[in-house]
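Re: the 631-residue chain
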Amino acid sequence: MRKIIFLSLACLMTLCAMAQEINAVRVTHNGTTDWYPFGKNGRIDVTIYEQGNPAVTGGKTYDLSKGNVETAFGTDPLPPIKKAAKNELEARKTEANNRMNQKAMGYEQIEEVQRAKEQGNEKVMLAADAAKIYIDHATNESTIQKEKDNGLNAMEVETQNTLADIQTAIANYKARMKNNIDDIAKDAKDTINARGVYITVEDEAINKIDQAVATAEANIDNATSENDVNNAINTAQDKINQQLAYVQDYYEKLQDAKQAANVDVDKAAANAEAAINKAAEGYGNIETVKHVVVTYQTQLSSVKDKAQLSINAETNLDGVGQLKENTIKQIKNDIQSKAEKEIQDAIQEFSGWQQQAINEVEQTAATAKEKINGLGVDESAKSEAKADIDNIAHTATATINAATSKDAIDNAKTEAIAEIYNVVQNLKDMWISVRENMTVGNYGTLCWKYDLTAIDGAELYTIAGIENGRIVLEEVLANETQAGAGYVIRATAKSLRVKNGDQYTDTPLDAAECNGLQGTFVEIVEYNAGDSGNKLEGNYIVYQNEWRKCGVMVGLRANSAYLIMNYVPGSAPAQAPGRRYISMPLPNSTPTSLGQWNKDKGQKTYKVIESGQFRIVKDNKMYNAQGTLIN
C-alpha cells in the first residue's frame, strides 16, 4: 500500500544556529529518502497516512536535530525533472482536449454533448493537476516518473471515458431525434387514420411516411453533425407533410364528392317521388294505388337513406361516384319506373273492377227489367219498378266510380244487385188478382205462367185419376205449383189472388204432363160454324161446377185449363196420409151447347167462360190496370 506523506511547516522557533538558509529536507522513512522543501528556518512535522484512508495510522514530529532527518543545503536537484513531467502532462491535457473537442465537433448546440465534453475536460485537468501535485512532492526521479505515468494513465482513462460519454450523448441525441421523427410520423399517421380515406390512399401515404422515417433514421445514424441530423429531420418532416397534405386534399375532395353525391341522390329521390305522385294523380285515394305509392315511397326513402349512409361511410372517391350512380339508377329503374307501371296497372285493374261491377249491375238491371216485363202485374207497377231499378243502377254506378277500394266496389255492386232483386221480388210479392166474383165452393181451372209462392181465395188441385166413376182431385200447395201447368181450383172466397214465384214459362205444359189438363195463357175464342180445329171441341171445361163437353162454338178465358180425357189416368192412386182427394162427377158425355150462331146479325151468340179482369193489390189496396184505386 502506497503511503502519502504530508508535511506541515510550523514556524515555532528560529534556528539561529544555522547560518545558511535551508531549502529542503530529506526525510528517510522505511528505507526511502525523499526531498521535501519546507521554507525558511523552521521545524517540520511529518505525519504519515495510509493512502485512501483519512484516519491517522501513525505519525511523528521530527526535529532537525534527530539523526533520521537529513538536511541539505542549496538547491533541489529534482525541479527540472518535475517541470518536464508536468509539461508532458500539460501537453497530454491539450491533446485530450483536442480529441474531445473533435469528438463533439458539430454538436456545439447539444447541451448533453457539451456537458460531457466539459466534464471530461475538467476530469482530465483534475487528473493532470493531481499528478502535478504528486510530482511536486516527489523526492526522487523514479517517483516523479511514476506519478507522471499515473497522471497520463488517469488522463487517458478520463479521456476515453469522456469520448465514450460524448458518443453516448450524441447517440442519445440522435435517439431523441429519431423518437421525435417517430412521434411526428405517428401523429401524422393518426391524423391520416382519423381522416378515414380510402385504405389504398391511406396505406400509400403511411408507407411513404414510413419510408421517410426509415431514411431519416438511417441518415441520423450516419450523421456527423447536428446539422446532418436537422437536415434528415427536416427532409423527413417535409415528406410527412407532403403526405399529410395529399391525404388532406383527398379527404376534402372526398367530403365535397360526398356532399355533391348526397345532393344528387336527394334530387333523384325527390324527382322520383314527384313522378310517382304524378302517376297516381287523381287516383291517390284508391286503396290499391295508395298501397303502391306508400310501398314505393317507403322503399324510396329507405334506399335514399341507406345510400347516403353508404356514401357518408365511403372512403374512396371513385366509390362515392359509383354509389351515387348505382343509387340514382336504382331509384329511376327499380323504384320510379316500377312504381309508375304498378300504379298504372293498379289504376287499370281498379278501373276494370269498376267497369265490371257497373256491367254486372247494368246486366242485372236489364235482366230484372226483362223479368218484370213477364210479371203478371199492371204496366204502371212495371214502369215504377223499372224506374226504381234505373235509379238503383245509376246510384250504384256513381258510387262505384267514387269508390276507393275493391271492397267498396264490391259492396256497392252487391248492394245494388240486392236492391234490384228486392224490387223484382217486391213486385213478385205483390198480390195479383186473378179472379173476381167467384162463387164460394164452386170449381174452376187455372193455368199461370209462373209458379206460385202463395194463393188466396181458392184451393188448388191436380187430376189424380178416375175412381168409381168420378174424377179424383189431389190438393196441391201453392209453393208446389209449376209454371204453365193446368190446375183445378175450388173457390174459398169471391176473389182469387196469387203471388208469383221465380219459375216462368211462355208455353203451357201439355195435357199429358198434367194428367189431361191443358192450360192456356190466352183467351180461346169460339170458332164460326164450319170452322175446323176448335181445340175445345170434344174436350171438357168446368161449367156450373161440372165438367162439360165443348161443342164447336165455345170459348175459354185466358189463364184457364180444359180437360182432354184421353190423358186422364184410368185409376187414381191410393190415398196416402197427408193427401187430400176430392171427387167430382165424370164429364157429361152429351155435348153442351154454350153458344149459338146468330145468322141474322152475322154474329154468333155464345156462352163463354169469361176472363176475369186482373186486379193488382198493393199495400192491401186494390187497383185496376190503369192504377186507379178501386176500393
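The radius of gyration is 73 Å.
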